[in-house]
Design a protein that fits this description.
Helix content is 42%, strand content 19%. It is α+β, with helices and mostly antiparallel strands and 339 residues long. The protein has two domains: 91 residues; 225 residues, Bira Bifunctional Protein, Domain 2 (BirA Bifunctional Protein, domain 2). The strands form two sheets. The chain has a seven-stranded mixed beta sheet. Strands 2-3 form a two-stranded antiparallel sheet. β6 and β7 form a beta hairpin. α1 packs antiparallel against α2 and α5 crosses α10. The longest helix has 44 residues. It binds phenylalanine. The site of phenylalanine has 10 residues, from β8 and β9.
């Protein structure tokens, strides 16, 4: 074989060798006793002097080069084999009796827990769950709830209006528009709750957020009364806090209920900010205003209902003794991992 192709194939074989055995075999094929290059070197003796000089130098240089390359590659392959051996050793030493690594487990946000619990209790009392959009129209959020444009009662809800304002879109300021949406599509009698996120254009502090959660309630029938409302709410709180709680109704004003009231609950021991024994405002409520029934096409003389809207954040704060509403929206794991 001529020298030059021999050189190429030998260098290629060195590069390709993946382990000592392969490298050994290649070495033997070129430089062993009957190796290709060895045979060439040996045959030099039979050549004429000029040919021997020319070919001899080339062949000897190649031998030196290959010896060097084989030695280098041998070191590399040895190093690689050590790494592989180490890896295998580790794999073989898996201790099947060692305790496994515990994967971190996700969990529900306190507000979600509270919402689920509330849904469960109201469903057990025959209430269906209704939903509505967070972007509302002026009609559903205000007009249909007996709060016409320019009515001073609109100031009760600091509103995020969407641009342009005259388009009449806003972020709902309460869950009460779901009352309207549901009654438009369903005939009485009915009982629903509508939990959801709401938005107020307000400064934040320990008890105010610009978005929070409400749970709306609506029950419409032939003879629905304030007594029914009180009994249902009392039972809800009893189940929610897992003990009897004291509540009181206080006269109030909402355009969509008449009469209207505020429901207060008495703080027990262990209140987060030292309110023990004080009355705390829990929700707005009342008997559905005839104009609300008119807005959805019900005949006011035929139906009676109560409605209420409670703050889920406050409920969570009371249940878990959370002192600051902003913690619920902070995303702080030191807080969240406690639930
Ligand atoms: N929507 C009222 C609020 O956000 C609460 C409410 C609901 C009052 C239903 C009466 C009846 O303040």
């Amino acid at each position: 074989m001529a020298i030059s192709p021999l050189k190429n194939s030998a260098l290629e074989a060195i590069k390709r060798a993946q382990n000592l055995a392969e490298l050994e075999a290649s070495y033997k094929a070129y430089l062993g006793k009957k190796g290709e290059l060895t045979l060439i070197l040996r045959s030099l003796a039979n050549l004429s002097e000029t040919e021997r000089k020319a070919q001899g130098k080339e062949a000897n240089d190649l031998r030196d080069l290959l010896e060097k390359r084989f030695a280098e590659r041998k070191k590399e392959v040895q190093r690689e084999e050590i790494v592989i051996q180490e890896k295998l050793a580790i794999r073989e030493h898996v201790d099947v009796t060692a305790p496994g690594k515990r994967l971190p487990k996700g969990h529900l946000h306190p507000l979600t827990l509270v919402q689920k619990k509330a849904e469960e209790i109201f469903q057990s009392m025959g209430f269906a769950i209704a939903q509505g959009p967070e972007i509302e129209t002026e009609w559903y959020n205000f007009d249909a709830l007996n709060i016409p444009a320019n009515h001073p009662a609109r100031d009760m809800w600091d509103t995020f209006w969407l641009k342009p304002k005259n388009a009449g879109y806003l972020l709902r300021t309460h869950t009460s528009p779901v009352q309207i949406r549901y009654m438009e599509k369903h005939n009485p009698p009915l009982r629903i709750i509508a939990p959801g996120r709401i938005f107020r254009y307000e400064a934040t502090d320990a008890s105010h957020e610009f978005n929070f959660y409400q749970l709306e309630g609506l029950m419409v029938g032939k003879e629905v009364s304030v007594a029914n409302f009180k009994a249902i709410i009392q039972e809800f709180y009893r189940q929610f806090f897992d003990k009897p709680v004291s509540i009181r109704l206080r006269p109030s004003y909402f355009p969509f209920t008449e009469p209207s009231f505020e429901v207060d609950m008495r703080w027990g021991k262990g209140s987060p900010r030292g309110e023990a024994g004080k009355w705390l405002e829990m929700m707005g409520a009342g008997i559905v205003h005839p104009n609300v029934f008119r807005a959805v096409g019900y005949i006011p003389a035929e139906w009676r209902g109560f409605a209420f809207g409670m703050g889920l954040d406050r409920l969570a704060m009371m249940k878990y003794q959370i002192p600051d509403i902003r913690l619920l929206y902070s995303g702080d794991l030191r807080f969240l991992q406690q639930f």
